[in-house]
């Protein structure tokens, strides 16, 4: 029998979709004629869903990181037959930098995004702590915390702290140490909190912010950041300008495309969106201009006439992972399934469990922790298949696919369960209800209507 030709898959970035590809195509499970090369600047990837908890000191940094190095046990081959290569810069033995060409049959990009306007607004990159990359965010906050502790010991610290965004997590982290010396201001360009969510959600978060004395300032745009002040103006009145004092700023302004996207556009004509720089892909996560290039997660925009591209949220990168595994292996002919590519159909909405520091229903926190830890557990290198356990198929299952649930509760019972605030709530059953609601819009609306009536009745009785 002839040995099948070697197929080379190159992964650029260790994002939420790629870590699933890395796990599925681990050396112990992939075909012997498939080579996988991972190109990344870091050996660990931070899971975004657990970062607010890490900032709040509910998790340590290692607990929220996926160790890519041990997970990606894959070699690098530099033969070049089809002249399709990725150029990378690597350090040599003497501390210098050399350029290598990595050949591929298919390449996938999952590099996430950068923080919007961080390098455009004067002073932002010099004085602010950016939320991206996530691992640097936590390290910077830990460093600043130690500096504050040192200054408190020697009595040199007397000013209050103003911090921009991640406000509740920051309050939870620094509240005990600083108490009345901690002043938090949230500045945003929108007209209010959670503008795309329901009035009930907005009201609930507003009450939490007020309880912990977090000042919220809306409809403000930043002009410049100096060493002591944020210079802003009103989006509704250009003449209304002010300077807001601070000692620390966290820059959390949403997603912006990496420079790499623009570079690929200039170098090889990779199609990106005109104004934002997102890599444009079809429903198969395949580049519109280069069929051998795939992209997933925050760095791409799905162009689909029937549906808007999903928002930049980690859940969509996670859910696209199994689709990416299928399509990469099918494209290079390494899949045992049919070679037709599989479409990714993003869900319309997703479960949002916000870690709001000290203010969170206990059962909700237990549910969020359970979901996040369950996802992270997928990438425990000690649980990867051994060579003598080689499987016939790649593991493309979603992290929660194996969890069965009983028949849905009656809508009124479901509403009562979700409204409970006591510590005896069975969070597994609550999750069943939430997943039933996500799977059935009619059931979801019925549960929500009953819940709203119950809340309105409670409020009227209080008044």
UniProtKB/TrEMBL annotation:
Its cofactor is FAD. InterPro entries: FAD/NAD-bd_sf (IPR036188), FAD/NAD-binding_dom (IPR023753), NADH-Q_oxidoreductase (IPR051169). GO terms for biological process: aerobic electron transport chain. Signal peptide: none annotated. Gene3D superfamilies: 3.50.50.100. Keywords: FAD, Flavoprotein, Oxidoreductase. Its EC number is 1.8.1.-. Residues 182-308 form the FAD/NAD(P)-binding domain. GO terms for molecular function: NAD(P)H dehydrogenase (quinone) activity. This is Pyridine nucleotide-disulfide oxidoreductase family protein. Pfam families: Pyr_redox_2.
